[in-house]
Amino acid sequence: MTEVGSTDAEAGALITTQLTGVIRLAGSGVRTAPSAVHDLRVTLKRLRAWVRLLRPAVQASVDPKLLDQRFADIGRSLSVARDEQVLSNTLRRLQSRARGKDVRRIEAWRDQLAASPRAEIPWDRVRAELAVSAQMLHGVYSRGGRPPFDQLA
To answer: Which residues does 2 contact at the CB level (< 8 Å), separation at least 6?
Structure first.
């Protein structure tokens, strides 16, 4: 891991790498992967942490609070789908260990969850928000031909 005070190129690469990872995860292939929503949310949280850590360099070109809020909103738009995944997995594990009446109760909960409408993941919106965020960050890295991370030293 690169620490604050590293070279400009290394520091600039940290946020770029995280954002690239988020955009890749939000691509069309992840919709069927069970862990995709979780991985996307984790990567967004990591990206938010880097934006906060590198605030002095980022704030010269873009409002870090606005960027942080954008990433938080994207993550929040995925939270219901993630909650459904966790609940389903938890019920499955509980059912495998349950006995007697508890098995039937858990089966009923699983059936109810399966019959309820699934939270739709707004993939188009997620990709659009990420694209706008990337454009906002582009100014951070393109000013003067290199990222302005020397302000962190």
So the answer is: 10, 11, 13, 14
Phi, psi of 121 (to 5 degrees): -85, 125
Cα first-last separation, the chain = 17
- pLDDT score at 119: 76
Higher pLDDT, 30 or 97: 97
Please write down the HEC assignment for all residues of the chain: CCCCCCCHHHHHHHHHHHHHHHHHHCCHHHHHCCCHHHHHHHHHHHHHHHHHHCHHHHCCCCCHHHHHHHHHHHHHHCHHHHHHHHHHHHHHHHHHHCCCHHHHHHHHHHHHHHHCCCCCCCHHHHHHHHHHHHHHHHHHHHHHHCCCHHHHC
Quote the CA–CA distance of 125 and 97 in Å, as a whole number: 39
Considering only residues 37 and 150, tell me which one the structure prediction assigns the higher pLDDT.
37
How would you label 12-27 residue by residue, b for 16+ Cβ within 10 Å and e otherwise? bbbbbebbebbbebbe
Q: In whole angstroms, how far apart are CA 60 and each of 1, 141, 143?
A: 24, 11, 10
R_g over Cα of the chain: 20
pTM: 0.70
